[in-house]
Amino acid sequence: MNISRLHSSALGALFLLPFFAYGLGTALVTSVLKDPEHLALLSGQRTLFVAGALLLLVDALFVVGIGVLFFPILRERSPGIAIAYLCTRVMEALTLIVGVVFLLCILQLGEAAQGQTTPELVTLSNLLAKGNFWAYQLAMLILGVGSVPFCLSLYRARLLPSVLPLVGAVGYGLLALGSVLELFGLPWSVLFSGPGGLFELVLCGWLIARGFRAVTPAVTAQPAWRA
């Protein structure tokens, strides 16, 4: 199938927008939580905190949008992978939303504290913040595992330069590995997330600037490594 430039550009934008939504949302939330007395100050910083949480929810919506827009493209070649990738993105989004719920629980905890913090409340707040962290790592594990066959399907479909989906497959595999290490208490995920993030940024630029390739009989006849 030949994919319209509008469809390609929309997908490219959806790969880019989560970087801004999640990055800004995390920055706003972290700016509040980094203060040792954040529970006592939360009521006065509610707007900032809620704005960050809402941006994290918007990020989850963008994630689902990627799966929805890729579904008709993958369905033409690999119906099973199309469904699996859509489910991957939905599960990733739901797990991220669980993390936002943990953050909103911290907000409620701060309002209940009424400016007075106790060691018990601080411990509970730290556990909720850790729950958000675990939810994020689980989401990245789901994304990494589910996106490897997605990238291999793109490679076989010849819709992109062959090296791009192969880099994506390796990058997502490393992303999943980094998340597993984090869940076991080894803070190395930042070392493994680079290739996957780079793939998404390059893919975003390629889809906006060039779009998907038109798959002609001549392209189909080429070996995959030359496509």
What does it look like?
The protein contains 9 helices and no strands. With 227 residues, the chain is an all-alpha fold. Helix 4 packs antiparallel against helix 5. The longest helix has 39 residues, at 119-157.
Describe the SSE topology.
Blueprint: H1 5-33, H2 38-41, H3 46-75, H4 79-113, H5 119-157, H6 163-183, H7 189-192, H8 194-209, H9 217-221
Helix pairs in contact: 1-3, 1-8, 3-4, 4-5, 5-6, 6-8
Point out poorly predicted stretches.
216-222
H-E string: HHHHHHHHH
Broad shape: elongated
Q: Can you count the helices? A: 9
Distance between the termini: 16 Å
Q: Can you give the helix content as a percent range?
A: over 70%
How would a crystallographer describe the biggest sheet? none
Q: Which secondary-structure class do the elements indicate? A: mainly alpha
How confident is the prediction overall: mean pLDDT? 89
Strand content: under 5%
Rg, alpha carbons:
20 Å
Count of strand segments? 0
